[in-house]
Design brief:
alpha/beta, Transcription Regulator spoIIAA, 4 helices, 5 strands, 46% helix
Length: 119
């Protein structure tokens, strides 16, 4: 698993995940993303377009991030889910817990709309 991060501004952090988010990578994923979030992001978009596989431990790491962000008044949005990763998310009904979008642009737009509705 590899991660790339990008600050999209306005407290939005984009994480691109490449490869497999399996039991071996899940704790590193959580720690690395948590470290990045410690620098002020309130909203996290996880781009799953290059994610090949996600295990139960990988899903648990995503849910831990979701709980952390929610506690801090933010949220996690999953973008570009496809193939087996999308099937697993739907099978586990996690798309009812974490918001899922077709792409990063749609996830970012949803954050902007949520902000407007709060004002």
């Amino acid at each position: 698993m590899q991660l790339e991060s990008k600050d999209l501004g306005d407290g939005v952090l984009l994480i691109e995940v490449y490869g497999d988010l399996d039991s071996a990578a899940s704790e590193a994923f959580f720690k690395d993303v948590s470290w990045l979030l410690d620098h002020g992001a309130k909203h996290l978009i996880v781009d799953c377009g290059s994610l090949e596989l996600v295990s139960s431990m990988g899903l648990a790491s995503m849910m831990r991030l979701h709980a952390r962000m929610k506690k801090q008044g933010g949220n996690v949005k999953l973008a570009a889910l496809r193939g087996v990763v999308l099937e697993v998310i739907k099978l586990m009904n996690l798309h009812r817990v974490v918001q899922v979008y077709d792409g990063v642009d749609e996830a970012r737009a949803a954050i902007d709309v949520e902000r407007q509705n709060q004002e």
